[in-house]
Write a structure and sequence with these properties.
The protein contains seven helices and five strands; from the N terminus they run H-H-H-H-E-E-H-H-H-E-E-E. It is mostly helical.
């Protein structure tokens, strides 16, 4: 179809519709792009924008929450107390034929040392110079063992004897009875024997201290011999506190003031008002350790 065949109005409408297309063809033929620009106006084409395609972020999936489970609450057990009070009848070394009262409780009386020097303990009078057991500590030893303090029935003895470098601390003391085969007088024999062996070099001081603290009855049987004869307590009545014993043959010879005749006597069993004790003759109670004629000196 040609334009000449159309009516005037249609021809004009067709020209108006084709005008932009004609201009675009002409622009492409001249090497220009873009819309026509009015004459006299400089045209600066905008650089083409190059955009990079970025994929849309993938939505993160939250971890699925585990279904709630209902746990049965188990109550925690109540902790049991670990502290136990050491009873006097426990923690004792059992020896056949030996009463428990003659052996110390190892928890209450494990022993204690003042020195490990054999040269020191072998000096004459050493034990007397270091003996220091006040009445309050002696009473504490009775209380710890639950033993009633009956005068002249017990001796507050040193487990590791002073002659072997033992200490006066409460953990080295216990109330040892006088009566029986393995009483305080029997242990005194062992103490003297071990002291002689140490000072002669036959036994080292640490070895003597160990065997005396571990089991003094076994040490007696090893270094002294068979079990001794049982000791019978003296029927004499002990004096009242602060008063001398009654006269009439009940005094132990060799002491002034008069001391009762008992199996053994310790300075802690003597009233402070009677001290110091003047040793005028024999010294069966071994109160004068340094040989100066006086015992139980303050």
């Amino acid at each position: 179809m040609t334009i000449t065949r159309l009516s005037g109005r249609r021809r004009w409408a067709l020209l108006v519709a084709c005008l932009p297309l004609s201009l675009a063809v002409a622009s492409c033929a001249s090497g220009q792009t873009g819309a026509p620009v009015a004459h006299g106006t400089p045209h600066h084409p905008k650089p083409a924008r190059h955009t990079r395609w970025v994929p849309a972020p993938t939505p993160q999936r939250l971890p699925r929450r585990a279904p709630a489970t209902h746990h049965r609450k188990v109550p925690h057990p109540t902790p049991r107390p670990t502290h136990r009070t050491a009873a006097p009848h426990r923690a004792r070394v059992h020896v056949a034929g030996v009463p428990l009262a003659d052996l110390p409780n190892s928890r209450l009386t494990p022993g204690g040392l003042l020195t490990t020097s054999a040269a020191a303990v072998c000096v004459s009078g050493y034990a007397s110079s270091v003996r220091d057991v006040p009445s309050a500590e002696s009473e504490q030893a009775y209380t710890r063992y639950g033993v009633v303090h009956v005068p002249y029935a017990h001796e507050v003895d040193h487990l590791v004897s002073l002659e072997l470098g033992g200490s006066n601390v409460i953990t080295n003391l216990w109330p040892e009875p006088y009566a029986g085969r393995w009483g305080a007088r029997t242990k005194d024999v062992l103490e003297n024997k071990l002291h002689d062996l140490v000072c002669s070099g036959a036994v080292t001081l640490p070895a003597a201290q160990h065997i005396e603290a571990a089991n003094w009855v076994v040490a007696y049987r090893r270094y002294v011999g068979a079990a001794p004869a049982p000791v019978t307590p003296s029927p004499s009545h002990p004096p009242t506190s602060g008063s001398p014993p009654p006269p009439g043959g009940s005094c132990e010879p060799g002491y002034s003031p008069c001391l009762p005749i008992v199996d053994d006597l310790d300075c802690a069993d003597i009233a402070d008002s009677l001290k110091p004790i003047h040793v005028t003759g024999s010294d069966p109670y071994r109160l004068d350790g340094d040989g100066d004629g006086y015992g139980c000196e303050p």
